Amino acid sequence: MLEVKDLTLKYGASQILHGVSLVARPGAVTAVMGTNGVGKTSLLRAIAGRHPYAGGSITLDGQVLDHPSAAQAAKAGIAYVPQGREIFPLLSVTENLQTGFACLPRAERQVPARIYELFPVLKQMKDRRGGDLSGGQQQQLAIARALIMRPRVLLLDEPTEGIQPNIIKQIGKVIELLREEGEIAVVLVEQYFDFAHDLADHFCVLNRGEVVLSRAAQDVTRAEILERVSI
User: Fold this and answer.
1) Which of 40, 119, 166, 207 can bridge 189 by disulfide, Cβ–Cβ 3.0-4.6 Å?
2) Which residues of the chain have pLDDT under 70?
3) pTM of the predicted model, to two decimals?
4) 39 in any annotated domain
5) d(CA 94, CA 221)
6) Is 36 left (phi over 0), alpha (psi -120 to 50) or beta?
7) 180: domain CATH number?
8) Contact 222, 197 (CB under 8 A)
9) What is the pLDDT of residue 228?
């Protein structure tokens, strides 16, 4: 289980997160929602060790991660799929996947067949350069690269942004499968409300860097979520 407690984060003199708390459990999807600029990406970057946080704590399976670097967070089991995908455009699909090996013991440094079962297009294009893939194919590659790490927590930042509907549907099925397997806690930042609503087990809505709603999906209505998101 991932537990974020009273997290604060600053960019220079500007405070972006104000005491944000969040819990993500294996086999569940926690959807972090809110309008642009409320701190959603900053929250994921802090959890992933991509930006230092000022206060609060991040705990994974009872172990406190004390202001981890990106490498330390990854080794602890936190995989991050950033907004914009950040694949390596000049590396092949296979080489992009192999960059996920860094956190694994040498004996486990191979691309599992399961990755190609989840994302068949990557097997077809494994020798093609990442930069030659479509936006949707690059997003599948970015998620697959994260799964190569055998993570305990998967952070997804706007996975549907700029993606064609058929691939959005496929990504949704992959997230559903990960939830059903019950081994990975998924934290999903998403602007596409219907996509998030259909997948989420828990909602965490941010406004101006603060949590304004945190509730299990069965305990909150669609209208309540939309009302909080639009504040």
Assistant:
1) 40
2) 231
3) 0.94
4) yes
5) 43
6) beta
7) 3.40.50.300
8) yes
9) 87
Residue 62's pLDDT is 92
Q: Is residue 166 part of a domain?
A: yes
Residue partners of 144: CB distance under 8 A and separation at least 6: 97, 115, 118, 119, 122
Could you tell me the two tokens for 9? 């984060």
Domains: count for the chain? 1
What was the pLDDT predicted at 229? 84
Alpha-carbon torsion angle 223, 29, 86, 61, nearest 10? 140
> What CA–CA distance (Å, rounded) separates 231 from 229?
6
Give the tens place of pLDDT for each residue, 186-200.
999 998 899 999 999
Mean pLDDT for all residues in the chain: 94
Q: Shortest CA distance to 129 belongs to which of 101, 91, 174?
A: 91
Q: Is residue 108 part of a domain?
A: no
Q: Where does 99-164 have alpha helices with state H? A: 113-118, 120-124, 135-148
d(CA 189, CA 83): 9
Q: How far is 76 from 209, CA to CA, in rounded Å?
A: 26
User: What domain range is 203 assigned to?
Assistant: 2-86+153-229
* Helix axes of 165-181 and 135-148: crossing angle, nearest 10 degrees: 20
Q: What digits encode the pLDDT tens for the residues 118-138?
A: 999 999 999 999 999 999 999
